[in-house]
Write a structure and sequence with these properties.
Blueprint: H1 5-12, H2 16-23, H3 26-35, E1 41-45, E2 48-51, E3 56-59, H4 62-65, H5 74-86, H6 98-110, E4 116-120, H7 123-138, E5 142-146, H8 155-158, H9 164-167, E6 177-180, H10 185-192, E7 197-202, H11 217-227, E8 231-235, E9 259-262, E10 274-278, H12 280-286, H13 304-319, H14 322-341, E11 347-353, E12 356-361, H15 367-379, H16 384-396, E13 398-399, E14 401-402, E15 409-412, H17 420-438, H18 443-458
Parallel strand pairs: 3-13, 5-6, 5-7, 7-8, 8-9
Antiparallel strand pairs: 1-2, 2-3, 4-10, 9-10, 11-12, 12-15, 14-15
Helix pairs in contact: 2-3, 5-13, 6-13, 7-12, 10-11, 14-17, 15-18, 16-17, 16-18
Length: 462
Amino acid sequence: MSFDLQQVIAQRGAEKFPLFDRYLNGQLVRVLKTIGYDVDYVRGEGPYLFDAAGNRYLDLLSGFGVFAMGRNHPAVAAALRQVLDAQLAGMVQMDVSLLAGLLAEKLIARLPYLDKAFFCNSGAEAVEGAIKFARAATRRPKIIYCDHAFHGLTVGALSLNGDELFRSGFEPLLEGCVRVPFNDIVALERALKANEVAAFIFEPIQGKGVNLPADGYLQEAQRLCRKHGTLFVADEIQTGLGRTGTFVACDHWDLTPDMVLLAKALSGGFAPVGAILMRRAIFDKMFDRMDRAVVHGSTFSKNDMAMAAGLATLAVLEEERLIERSADLGERLIADLRARLGGFEFVKNVRGKGMMIAIEFGPPKSLKLRAAYAMLDKANKGLFCQLILIPLFKKHRILAQVAGHAMPVIKLLPPLVIDEADAEWIAGAFEDVVGESHALGAVWDLGRTLAGHALKNRAGVA
């Protein structure tokens, strides 16, 4: 065969941004160029990215949590090569998958209060499937979700999205979806009391904002769901597989959900995969007769590459004790950030669990700083964060992002494989750039430029 991928990349690598602009999302290219993130990355290894000039960057986005193992982990890559070399008879469809059975066994062993697994291709697809399983099991129409929730962008998952930015322009969405405030147990009980709700689908720690549950909230929510016959469904798509220092974040509060949704990190960073783990009684209501054995499915679910990636990922988590590392190093990083940033007026809070961390900013006390902050806040509620993120990237080569739209919060999702030196890199860099923001020096020229762009965009001026 004449096709040579390496040759294609070598010959056309410089066309990355023009091609994406021409054939894909040109607005994304515009954003990257505006903030100076249009870098030619040529390689990824562990928690690092490398550009064409050989510069090393620390990736605190982790592909929105996909790269918990870091990029190109050799154990996961080796498992995938073995799949290719074995020439397995995958996706026969009129057959069952050994690797899927093995992966399901491993996952259920981690969550022994559940019995069955359903595999799919993404987190959003896991949420869509959970909606179907919940309605089939309860014969009820309604689904409860929380303010600020993010469960995906397909229509069903989008119907459970608590951010109007994502919902706007796509209505009407799925009927029967009821929004309640996160951490408001009274509102949840009010929504449950008519006994019409199939499921309460929640993130134990919300990804948009890294919002942690109040003491006792999730335990009481679980009790109320059981009381009213509503399924208690944990979206662990970002928080699962060690991200917060336990296998799933629900373990922090000794919860036993009726369904747990996984994806992202389960892929090992290679092959898209999602999973719905559930109680047998729920599963059996969907697949209740032989003629309904295929009533729900997905063509590429249980494919051998995805299943092998999941098995290798679980092995790496155990062998390298990455969950324990997330708990230990993550908590020490949070404490270090609090110590270094706590004296700065713009810093309102540092919070998180394990390797899921938020730095929240807010109006300072001193008059001069308050006026500068107000200028950015008027243009866009989350714009101050760019005053931190852009120099963090340009000066310290650390890639991070805001935690949500119009939100003055920076979210850090370090790969679980970072080491002590990386943690020092992170804490020192934030101390430097946050300190610079308080000096009202040259960095605020950037702030005025960003505010001008934001106001023009709001007014509809190109």
